[in-house]
Amino acid sequence: AVARSAFQTPILIALDGSTGRLEYWPLHRGGSAHARWLSESLGITYSTGMVADGDQLYIASDNPKGIVTYNVDTKLKGIIADPYGEPLDLAIGKDAALYSLHSNTVLVYPAGSSQAYQLSCQYMTLGEAIAVDNESDVFVNGYGPGQFEGVVEYPVGSTGCTKLPLKTEIGYATGLGVDPNNDNLVVVDNVYCAGGREGRMIVYRRPYGSKIGHVRNLKANCPGQFRFDATATVMLFGDTYPELRSMKVQRRVCIAYSCVDQRTYPNLRHDRTYVSGYPKGFTTIPNTLPN
User: Fold this and answer.
1) How far apart are CA 276 and CA 178, in angstroms?
2) Do residues 133 and 183 lie in contact, with contact meaning Cβ atoms separated by under 8 Å?
3) Is the whole model's pTM more than 0.90, yes or no?
4) Cα angle, residue 46 at apex, residues 44 and 50 outer, rounded to 5°
5) Is-contact 140 155, C-beta < 8 A?
6) What percent of the chain has pLDDT over 90?
7) Could you tell me if 284 and 27 are in contact, meaning their C-beta atoms sit under 8 angstroms apart?
8) Beta partners for residue 78, in sequence order
9) 79 phi and psi angles, rounded to 5 deg
10) CA distance 16 to 230
């Protein structure tokens, strides 16, 4: 179910890397070049990821090190200490457990707890993105020994991990998500990350690897991590320089992922872009767990 929120109209929220403030745009078909401020500076200079549970945001922060929490309704701010510093990505399970990804480990914070336990995997030494399914199985996209590039799974209740037999990723591993409506696994890679309309999305149905639902070109320049909206019918991801001429938002150079692209999911139509400031880490409210 979609978590209740102070915002009735779905919004895209991002941390503006130039000011440390939260900014937001109402989600709509035209995209937007005009963000609104949601907070004063949170003192965060850079963020690699953000997730939401109702009105509560969890923001991967480099300064202060750890996970900054912020409630968009009450305006209360807090911090969850992370012994490994800034997470590379975050995810929240259906049970509200928080998952913090680092290069070769995952920290799991049970709902309401600031004390984490650790998941390790011998096949993953450089994680890039993390996702959780409805059953609290954990997935990480990244790299490992022996030139491995792909996704590993930590089955719920297990201390071990397995490599998923997925289609070989091309170029750079970058995005990962699970459709909360059906547990479809969504993997994004960057074919070359050298300009032009690139980036690839592959959707897998269970059992993962045996059934490929969709393979699509994202038509983006070096797309980054992605997030679903509450309905999982909209997909949003960072983009260095949108080159799609169909977008209604005035085009501008997007340096170091300063744009967020929107596509319908899973057909990747209706290309739209949100620009303003330097969004570093983003999510949507309202949202659906897991995300």
Assistant:
1) 28
2) yes
3) yes
4) 85
5) no
6) 60
7) yes
8) 69
9) -145, 140
10) 22
